[in-house]
Each structure stands twice: as structure tokens, then as C-alpha cells.
Amino acid sequence: MSEEATTVAQNDLELVDHCLERFFSVSSARAERYGGPNPELWRVLRRASMGGKRFRPRMVLTAYTALGGTDTAAAVQVGAAYELLHTALVVHDDVIDRDWSRRGQPNVAGSFRDTGTTGGLPLPTAEHRGTSAAVIAGDLALAAAPRFIEASGVTGERRARLLDIFDEAVFASAAGEMADVDLALGPMPTVDEVLAMERAKTSVYSFEAPLQSGAVLAGAPEPVIAALGAFGREIGIAYQVVDDLLGVFGAEAETGKTVLGDLREGKRTVLIAHAASTDCWPELSQHLGDPGLTEERAAELRATLVSCGAKSAAEQRVAEHTALARAELAGLPYDLADRLECIVTELVERAR
């Protein structure tokens, strides 16, 4: 991709940030009228929306600009809708996972738990306060996100299509999140069951829907919109498997999450589902899900995940879905395919 195209994309992402900042400024002013902890809730929610890589707006803007779209202001609003949706889902996901930090800092739940303990609340009560605040904050972001699409100025059938795609993204993510909860409670799932859950939970709202929204906004023909959906599905699955690999084998300074979290939780990822089908499982299963798992024991579990082939199997899945994603690029205009190829490389390189 040319340096000029990269610069334009970065400028557009800055416009997304400005759009979100205006939203949080207005919302914070509204919260002041209600007093109490509400202004703090919005300050913490605003902080939760900062610092990400803006993948979802990038998908919208990449598809839109490469397909000839010229109304940058409208595309920025649609991109901001997906970024705020991402914030909402992350805040809720942290509650479900019982995480108190994100990117090395207290998340919404952790912030309100900590101010509760500082104010003299006993820890169980402070934790309830924290999770309650996170549920409320996530609800606020979720309710507000589609309003950005409505504020884009798009009308008629195109507006309806954008809202339908967005609604399906929320619907799919909820289904995936619920599947994730149940997969953790029932029998060990298969690798394919884990991948189906990850596609619904992450791929649709992070890649499929934003790419298709950018194409719809640009007035692209249906074959292009369909190809982008298929590309987004495959690269989204690959992205999530990479994320699972990083959750065990990554560096905390880069991912923002402890590499002990998934092992202590006993999270049922592609890695674990594959390992459960091997002779190494009895050795692994007695330590997975131990909230007191030490780094030394975790290092042993990582070594076992390598020796039993789980790590290589997950990496093979990444390669397979990446190849399927790249196959869809052949049906897209050259400029768009070129930009998406750069994104594919970036996403896959995270695990190396």
C-alpha cells in the first residue's frame, strides 16, 4: 500500500477519535445533571474506549475509500458506531470473564471496585459495585452505538441496510458470547465448535459487518459485498485463533492481558480443545482452571501444549483460514484487495 493511502487512513481514524470524543463530551455533560457517580461512570467508559487499534473503523474506512466512497464524514460516523460497539462488548466480556484489568490498567469494573475499596467498602461489596458499574457502562455504549449510523446522514434503503448489518452483528456477538459461556460449563467442545463460537462472538462484528458496511455505504455491487463478508469471516476466525495463541504464548506488555488469565480460567480455546483429544490431556487438565496457577506451572503447561501438538494445530488453523480469506481477494477490485492483503499480513504477524 502506498504511503499516501496509509496517511489518508490514519487521518480518517483520527476523525473517528474526534467523533467519539464529541460523543463522550456531550454525554459527560448530560451525566453532570444527574450527579452522584454518573460523571465518573462516563469518564471511566471514555477511558475504556481509548488506546485500541481501531480495527473496526479501519475495516469500514478501508472498504469505503477503496471502493470509491467520497463522503468521509458519513464513513467516520459508521466507523465510530462499530468502535463504540466494540467498547460495549469488551466491557461486558470483562464482566463475564471476571477480569478486573484491560491493557494493563483497571477496566471499568476494576476502577469502580477500587474506588469502592478506597471508600471503605468491603471487597465483596466493592466487587459487586464494580461489576454493576461495568454492566451499566456497557449498556450505555451499546445503546448509543447505532445512533452514529443514524447521524451519518445516510437515508433510505442504504440506511436501513446499514442498521440491519449492525443489528445482525450485535445479535451474532450475543449468540457467540452465550455459546462461550456454555462451552465453559459443559463437556469439552470440539475444535470446530470453538471456531463456530469465535466466528459469532468476534468475527461478525469485528470484520464481516464493518467491511460490508463500508461497501454498502460506497454503493458497491452485491458480489463485492458478499466477497467482503466471506473474507471478513475467514480473517476474523484466524484473528481470534491468533488472539487465543497470544493469550497463552504472548507477551503481556504487548497484549495488555496477563498470559496466565486463560490458563487460570481454563478457557476452552482451540488450543485446549485440541489438547483434550491427545494423550497429554490428563497432565494438562489437573492444572487448567486453577486460579492460583503459578508462572512456573504455567510454563510447564505451555511446554505440554507445544509437545502435544496443540500449538501447531492452532497455527495450522490460522494458516487455513488466512488462505481462505486470501482466496476471496481475487473477487475484489485491485486497490481494495491490496489494502486488505496488508491487513491480513498485519493480523497474522501478531503471533510471530
TrEMBL record:
Transmembrane segments: none annotated. Pfam families: polyprenyl_synt. InterPro entries: Isoprenoid_synthase_dom_sf, Polyprenyl_synt, Polyprenyl_synt_CS. Gene3D superfamilies: Farnesyl Diphosphate Synthase. It comes from the Bacteria. One of its GO terms (molecular function) is geranylgeranyl diphosphate synthase activity. This is Geranylgeranyl diphosphate synthase type II. It comes from Curtobacterium luteum.
